[in-house]
Amino acid sequence: MESYVVFKDLAIIIIAAKFLGIVARKCKAPQVVGEIIAGLVIGPCLLGWVSQSDFLVQMAEIGVILLMFSAGLGTDLKELLKTGPIAFLIACFGVFIPLICGAFLYMGFYGVQPWGSEGFYKAVFVGVILTATSVSITVQSLKEMGKLKGRVGTTILSAAIIDDVIGIIVMTFVIGFKSPDSNPMSVVIHTVLFFVFAGVVGFITYHIFKIVDARYPHTRRIPIAGLALCLAMAYIAEKYFGIADITGAYVAGIILCSVKDSDYIAEKMDINSYMLFGPVFFASIGLKTNIDSLNMEILIFSIAFVIVGLLSKIIGCGLMAKVCGFKGEDSLKIGIGMMTRGEVALIVSQKGLSVGLLTPVYFTSVILLIIISSISTPILLKYLYSRDKEETAAE
Fold it and tell me: How many angstroms separate the first and last alpha carbons of the chain?
């Protein structure tokens, strides 16, 4: 393929992704849904204007690294510590229940897989996809209703952050175990060593950035250095510890999230991500989605995947919220607020595809879950809060 062809592909991707992203937003759905659909429309599934290439794969990889770095930068450590214990318990059950349910769902369709076999890790990975929570839709809904800063809203936010951290760690273990050259103890040791390394490097790096930030506040050299840290941590994680590169990028964001200019760094990262790398990544999901092998079995699996994905979050997070002292109605709000899926589920799915734990046809299931959860969550939360008003008025 001639090198100039990539310019045509990028132009088509950007225009289609942004146009359908705006359409999705007008329909009260996340913009990411439109960008994924754009990939389906312009890719081999429908029009065939753009095909996957090594260049686009690498661009998408940079996109996912930047997304995870931004996710880390957006972490509020103070808020996390404030609601920590309760949010941690809710997040743990919000990971454990979907993980188990997803694995059993896969085995229910394709048979019980022997422990340690590739089929077993594929089943577990389906569960790993279901562990992710995208709280952006919930945040916007709670903000519109003026409920974001309440106890329920704060707990959802904190639990969602912890949820994604645990989910990424679980994904790291599963990918490590899947390698035929690895053994469980080696994976555990490498993972622990990485986080020890990240802690030491993070402590030193944070203080260096703090000094530079105080001396040269709001200058472009700070986000440039932040980007370099992100890419370096992604490389080191995969190259020297066998940890997923997105884990390294996420940790880099966590390291810098408390720096005074963290919002400025995130703003500069978002420009690159919003204009180019983000659309390419999300559209690439659509480009990779293979509907040629879509049959009734996959369709039924997708429907079951969506149902299990929604209910497992409501049950896992809602029950633990109830145990932690929330009222029944508030527990349900927390469960529903945690059931949305988005970027992290796609990122995990993408990683599963790259290491052979997921086949492209199952992106259909993930996309369907994202669309349905993103539409249903605001409606259900609005209904539950409207009931609160009715009960207050009745009293």
Answer: 71
Instruction: Render 300-358 in DSSP notation, one character per residue.
Output: HHHHHHHHHHHHHHHHHHHHHHHHTT--HHHHHHHHHHT----HHHHHHHHHHHHTTSS
Tokens standing for residue 199: 């802690």
Q: What is the mean pLDDT of the chain?
A: 80
Instruction: Output the DSSP codes for 15-34.
Output: HHHHHHHHHHHHTTS-HHHH
Per the rule left: phi > 0, alpha: psi between -120 and 50, beta: everything else, 115 is beta
Q: Tens digit of pLDDT for each residue in 121-178? A: 888 888 888 888 776 566 666 666 666 566 777 787 778 767 767 777 777 777 776 6
Helices and strands, number each (H, E), in the chain: 17, 0
Task: List the beta strands (DSSP E) in the chain.
Answer: none
Closest CA to 62 of 230, 262, 194: 230
**How far is it, in rounded angstroms, from Cα 174 to Cα 176?**
5
Query: In whole angstroms, how far apart are CA 237 and each of 161, 173, 240?
Result: 21, 13, 6
Diameter of the chain by CA atoms?
Answer: 72
Asked if 60 and 346 count as a contact pair (C-beta separation under 8 A), the reply is no
User: Tell me: the pLDDT tens digits for 326-352?
Assistant: 887 889 888 988 888 866 777 778 778
Q: Among 259, 225, 56, 82, which residue's Cα sits nearest to residue 158?
A: 82
Tens of pLDDT along 204-235?
998 988 888 888 888 888 888 889 999 999 99
CB atoms closer than 10 angstroms to residue 218: 10
Q: What is the pTM of this model?
A: 0.68
